[in-house]
Design goal:
Blueprint: H1 10-23, E1 37-50, E2 56-64, E3 70-76, H2 80-87, E4 93-102, E5 105-116, E6 133-140, E7 145-151, E8 157-161, H3 164-174, E9 178-181, H4 184-196, H5 201-211, H6 214-218, E10 230-232, H7 242-249, H8 268-305, H9 317-324, H10 351-357, E11 363-364, E12 370-371, E13 373-377, E14 382-386, E15 392-393, E16 397-408, H11 411-418, H12 431-445, E17 451-454, E18 457-460, H13 461-478, H14 489-510, E19 514-520, E20 523-528, H15 531-548, E21 552-564, E22 567-572, E23 577-580, H16 594-606, H17 610-616, E24 625-628, E25 635-640, E26 645-647, E27 651-656, E28 664-670, E29 680-683, E30 686-690, E31 699-701, H18 717-732, H19 736-749
Parallel strand pairs: 6-9, 9-10
Antiparallel strand pairs: 1-2, 1-4, 2-3, 4-5, 6-7, 7-8, 11-12, 13-14, 15-19, 16-20, 16-21, 17-18, 19-20, 21-22, 22-23, 24-27, 25-26, 25-28, 27-31, 28-30, 29-30
Length: about 750
């Protein structure tokens, strides 16, 4: 593990992203508003809906045949003549119109009607300006604003400080480019566009930060002007801030020393510090961009596949999925709690399951959503059924010897297709798209081709597989998000219920011939009693697939070390390690106390002494612990050995150290609030909560880039050794050493391949 993370093949992937982006419909000019005058247009939308006041209206979008610009008009039903005229206009109709604008609203006179075209004209995609990828960030003060852009390929910086004309010039020369930011969709992009329109960036910035309401911000400038093509790395995130990602990646996370609340212009020294700070955030965003590039290429690929325009890739995965499926926002149906009937293809023996799930309305929580919780005692495990699917596992379990994992391929996507549980907000003519996506993904998954041509662009097959997977996996969650056009709480519930009923059906049949190790949402892990029983399970699986329509994979494993259903390490029969739970640190994304996870996993799967692993490790970033103060606290402070209190950052990089004289104590503070808890200290009526769970006896903060502050010699390795031992007790009990050594002896006796020692979190 390097002190600072680096990623391979980034420039070629970035070039592929830019190529895909360039081929998406639209250029910057085509997203400018249509000007007043006479135009030849095509009707691309003519949709009845309700106004904000509940009045019937039509929303009509007209696209220029010349440059792709669009104009939107709204026709109210009470304007009878206009309503009658536009009711006869079809999508695809070619018109010659006269357009006028007043107070931000358009009015249209139809000069001539022409034929209806079978295919809507696309916006032109050829760039009229420079087209590259810019990583950017902005800083806004009351009397100062700073915009910094970095060309990803040339590495050239553009720094614009308090210069609106320079900003406009830069924009006009580069507006066909792709702009990469962090939380940029909600902040940077809004401030940038408003500033370009002559608005005060400080007022926009303040409104965004204080109001937490985009509607308020959108009223402050013309949201239909000044297009910016962007991808926001905060969207579809794991919930981490840029500072946290920077910390995980090993780079400098020091906050600026310049006060953002200054009621005066910055001094020259403060301007220099602010520029350095902003550039550091740009570099952090660039590194996170490189980390996310495979996903970004996959996302852009699916937009290209569906012929969407350049604005599409600025959406969240959930909103993008809703768009490509053509979802229309519907009124709340209030049928989520209605009784459920088990599909006829299932053969459930348990009366307990039938009584709990069938033929009666579900109870609801305070938000009106169904509440389901049922514990079913089985011979091997207690199966927990609920709105999160089926789960059950042997606790603190170790097994060395061949076992099976029967995994259902794409359980939830297939459930939606097999039982018609797609969101009812998808138009009938679009229902086939989801099934086609699933088929396309399976074709790509088993294709031997290195690339697949999508609309003239060669896309790496492995990335396109993830592109297809994105909407398939996103749709289920989108059906439970009331702000999404796919929202359909009833169908989401039916998918979850039917998925776990399907898995319970399979479990009932398998458990007669095997010991069940665990059941999770879409898989059962089991040890057949004998070869004969294994053959019987094969027949059961074949019958189950025929009855239900699902597809089962049969994966072989040699070993499993299991704390519970959510935390385990398993080794496949070809020597691959699969792990789940906190030990994986969010699939290796969260590099915080990684040395403990790596030492633990290597001890379990390779027999490497965890003490030796920790003492041999010379990778400083493995020892870092990242801590963050949440928004419910007012402040973060640290107290030194002299009991002096200092203000600290919200995000901090901490290391266990040996020298008590350099040690500090980190606290999250609630001012003027006396909280009652044994672990809370009250000072002057302020509540001080420890800022580092399971804190070492001595530790220090080092927010410089890894290698620029604390050294390996200062690290207290014994603390990390103790943390591994605590984990071993938590997973395997007080006799963990005896159990692990016995497992390793069995591994040797069975001649299973000894796995090499490596960083599983890297």
């Amino acid at each position: 593990m390097k002190n600072q993370a680096s990623f391979e093949n980034t420039e070629s992937l970035a070039k592929k992203l830019l190529e895909i982006f360039a081929n998406l419909a639209g250029n910057a000019k085509s997203f400018d508003t249509m000007v007043e005058g006479i135009h030849d247009v095509c009707v691309v939308k003519n949709e009845k809906r309700l106004s904000a006041k509940g009045k019937e209206m039509r929303e009509i979008v007209l696209r220029s045949l010349l440059d792709g610009r669009e104009a939107t008009i709204y026709v109210m039903k009470f304007r009878k003549e206009d309503w009658k005229t536009w009711s006869t206009i079809e999508i695809g109709q070619l018109l010659n119109i006269s357009l006028k604008s007043s107070n931000g609203f358009n009015s249209v006179t139809i000069n001539q009607k022409q034929n209806v075209v079978p295919e809507l004209p696309k916006k032109p995609s050829i760039a009229n300006t420079t087209q590259t990828i810019y990583v950017y960030d902005i800083e806004v003060f009351k009397y100062d604003n700073l915009f910094i852009f970095r060309d990803y390929f040339s590495k050239e910086w553009t720094v614009i400080h308090n210069d609106i004309e320079a900003l406009r010039d830069f924009y006009l020369k580069n507006r066909d480019s792709l702009f990469i930011g962090y939380n940029s969709h909600n902040y940077d992009e809004q401030v940038l566009r408003a500033t370009l329109q002559g608005k005060n960036p400080y007022h926009i910035s303040k409104a965004i930060i204080e109001n937490h309401n985009n509607n308020t911000v959108y009223k402050m400038y013309n949201t239909k002007k000044t297009p910016v093509f962007g991808m926001d790395l905060y969207q579809d995130n794991k919930g981490f801030s840029l500072k946290e990602h920077s910390a995980f990646l090993g780079i400098n996370i020091k906050e600026t020393d310049v006060d953002f609340n200054l009621d005066r212009a910055l001094t020259e020294e403060e301007s220099v510090l602010n520029e350095l700070y902003c550039k550091n955030d740009v570099l952090a965003t660039e590194l996170r961009f490189e980390q996310l590039l495979p996903m970004l290429v996959a996302k852009a690929s699916i937009a290209l596949f569906f012929g969407l325009d350049k604005k599409a890739i600025s959406q969240t995965n959930a909103n993008l999925t809703a768009e490509l499926l053509g979802a229309k926002k519907a009124t709340v149906r209030n049928d989520e709690l209605e009784p459920y009937e088990i599909p006829e293809c299932f053969s459930i023996e348990s009366e307990e399951i039938k009584q709990a799930f069938v033929g009666k309305k579900f109870t609801s929580d305070e938000k009106g959503h169904a509440v389901i919780s049922l514990d079913v005692e089985r011979r091997d495990v207690t199966e927990v059924l609920g709105v999160g699917g089926i789960h059950g596992a042997k606790q603190s379990f170790i097994h060395v010897g061949e076992f099976h994992a029967r995994d259902v391929g794409s359980l939830y996507p297939n459930t939606m297709i097999l039982f018609n549980y797609l969101s009812r907000n998808i138009p009938l003519d679009k229902l086939n798209i989801y099934k086609e996506l699933l088929e396309k993904r399976m074709d790509a998954k088993y294709s031997n081709a290195k690339t697949i041509n999508i609309r003239g662009v060669e896309i790496p097959t492995n990335l396109l597989i993830n592109g297809y997977k994105l909407p398939l996996n996103t749709k289920y969650g989108a059906m439970g998000a009331d702000f999404n056009k796919l929202y359909d709480a009833r169908m989401r519930l039916l998918v979850c219920l039917t998925g776990q009923i399907a898995m319970f059906d399979l479990l009932e049949k398998i458990e007669k011939h095997a010991t069940i190790i665990q059941s999770n949402t879409d898989a059962h892990y089991y040890i057949p009693f004998s070869e004969t029983d294994n053959d019987e399970i094969d027949k059961i699986a074949e019958d189950w697939q025929k009855r239900t329509g699902y597809i089962l994979d049969d994966d072989l494993f040699n070993e499993i070390y299991q704390k519970d259903v959510n935390n385990y390490i398993a080794i496949t029969n070809d020597g691959k390690v699969k792990f789940k739970g906190a030990i994986g640190l969010t699939q290796g994304l969260k590099v915080s106390k990684a040395i403990v996870s790596n030492a633990f996993i290597n001890y379990v799967v390779s027999g490497k002494d965890y003490k030796e692993f920790i003492y041999e490790c010379n990778e400083l970033r493995q020892f870092q612990m990242i801590t963050k103060t949440g928004y419910t606290f007012d402040d973060t402070v640290y107290i030194d050995v002299n009991n002096q209190e200092y203000k600290a950052q919200k995000v901090n990089r901490v290391f266990a150290i040996k020298d008590s004289k350099k040690s500090v104590k980190l606290f999250k503070v609630k001012r003027g609030c006396s909280m009652e808890d044994d672990e809370i200290t009250i000072i002057n009526n302020d509540s001080y909560v420890t800022g580092l769970p399971n804190a070492p006896k001595y530790y220090t903060i080092s927010n410089e880039a890894i290698g620029k502050g604390i050294t390996l010699d200062e690290i207290d390795r014994e603390y990390y050794i103790e943390e591994v031992e605590k984990l071993l007790v938590l997973w395997f009990g007080e006799n963990w050493k005896e159990r692990i050594e016995q497992a390793h002896s069995m591994r040797k006796a069975k001649n299973f391949t000894e796995l090499p020692v490596k960083n599983y979190i890297d």
